[in-house]
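Protocol step 4 of 5: obtain the predicted structure for the target chain.
Materials: sequence only (see below). No template structures provided, no constraints applied. The aim of this step is simply to have a reference model before the mutagenesis design in step 5. Sequence pasted as it appears in the construct record:
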Amino acid sequence: MRLNYLDTMKEKIKIENIDGKLFEIKLVEPDNYKPASFTHYLHNNKNGISKFYKKDALAHVKEILEKQYPLEKITNKFAEEALQYLIFDFKKTVPFPATENPSFKFIDLFAGIGGFRLAFQNLGGKCVFTSEWDKYSKQTYKANFGEIPFGDITKDKTKSYIPDDFDVLCAGFPCQAFSIAGRRGGFEDTRGTLFFDVAEIIKKKQPEAIFLENVKGLRNHDKGKTLAIILNVLREDLNYYVPEPKIMNAKEFGVPQNRERIFIVGFRKDLGIKEFQYPEPTDKSAILEDILEEQEVSVKYYLSTTYLQTLKNHRARHESKGNGFGYEIIPQDGIANAVVCGGMGRERNLIFDDKLTNFNPITKISGKVNREGIRKMTPREWARLQGFPDDFKIVVSDAQAYKQFGNSVAVPAIQATAEKIIEHLYNTHSGIQPLR
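Step 4 output (structure tokens):
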């Protein structure tokens, strides 16, 4: 028998004892903090931050060893030796490993599947804490980065695992309204919202820079009050220099998707940074054809005749009322609409693809597979629309994958902005190393 890093990442471990009998052991559920601490320890064993995670990491390994070897006495020393071995094993199994000699450190809140992390790692950064509550997103994050995110960031217990001395806080927090009846619209007025938890972490940890991302609608949410409160809290209560937020479009940064999101950047005022220019659009343009699968895709992505007719009828009803709502087929030299979590997200990004040769359905559909060559994009194509590389693993169902990529950030736009942030920090002699 042997224990390796991949064993510790599974929900269940199958082991064979000396008599040849097979046993299946269910691992401890991630919400007890130990598995997350374990993976965070492996990622941070050389940078001094591992002390925040070592106690629970050792306990996690010890629990697994005790279950695998119930007749052995597992000492703390033996567990620590096993932990050091796992560090070596771990380096061989992670698709997107952490930077070996990082220039700066950051944390990834509301991490989703790691769009922020990819961007900052590409610039030489090291992620030292991750938080994400959705269990399916955690699976994808774990498969690609070898790290289990901590859970609910609203819990004080979760916040207690956030280390000190990181440089940038990243967060794509949800948009929520605030209750400001008769008050000034400050820090206390954001209580009960997820932005309050972000602000609380900023207040306690004082990172040099912050990078927040949200939907475009934040600008006009609650008649502009929501954004006004956020900026007031960051500028006045938390003492950060925050330039005017900017709406950034993914299509201007090399991916063929019309996706607008608001970016909010801030710097601690004592750094003396008094100006910031968001990145200009790149000269790299892309069209839908650039991201489409070259080979024939599964018949399951092709619409049935019944469903296609339903979409046509639905659009006709709306057009008769003067509305433009309905499905849309994107030309191969065109730009995709924003990929979104649900609703008509996939139907607004249909394509023509005449490569299908097998029209026998493999799922239950009403009617036959359409012969017009109309299909949904695949999850991999959605990943490409968001700037994820092809070796990014998709380990969940199609339904979950569409949701995850629809909720994610567009990596190239995030990375272009992150590069500007790091350049400013480097120029202030704050200890950040120059970009490689």
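Step 4 remarks: Residues 11-30 have pLDDT under 50 and may be disordered. The radius of gyration is 24 Å.
Proceed to step 5.
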